[in-house]
Amino acid sequence: MSAVVSDTSPINYLIRLGEIELLPLLFGEVLIPPAVLQELQDAGAPDVVREWAFQIPPWRVSSRRRLSIGRWIWVLVKWRLSRSRKNSGDTLLLMDERKGRKAAWENGVRTAGTLNILEEAAVRGLLDFEQTVARLRATNFRIKNSVLAEFVARARARRE
Fold first, then answer.
1. Is CATH 3.30.360.10 what the domain over 3-113 is classified as, yes or no?
2. Quick one: pLDDT at residue 23?
């Protein structure tokens, strides 16, 4: 059994793209820490994001523990270390922030960002990667052009 925990950014962009249901299709249950849910419900969040965050989808697992995402990384590491060696790579943190992903990786927690989620969905035939990324680029999503070019090249290679 794997644990999937999401930070705010991937959920925010998937909602805005109308692709939030990719999360349960790809991962089953997803843990959304209370601090993340609060960010999604914040008055400054886009209306569509706030509306979604006030509804509880059946695949969202929550926790009553009030921890920052940084603290969740440590909880995941502790959980991971308490499991057998065979299952040690089962934790996945969904996060776009580079520093957070680096900290997670340094502590043995796998990460995936919004583009990784979209890429996996495209591999499974759930969406057209390039069309969806074009819609993503119309938001305030930021990524280095060189990184995006790698994702697009892989998508094109899969089509050929």
1. no
2. 94
